[in-house]
Amino acid sequence: MAEFTRFEIYMLLNQVKPLWLSYIDLSEIDLRGVDLRGATLMNCNLKNVNLRGAILIETALGGCDLSGANMVGADLRRANLRGANLRGADLREANLAEADLVEVDLSGSNLIDANLGGVDLTNANLTNADLTGTNAPDHRVLRAKSLSGTIMPNGLVHD
Question: Who contacts 155 (Cβ-Cβ below 8 Å, separation ≥6)?
Answer without folding.
Answer: 132
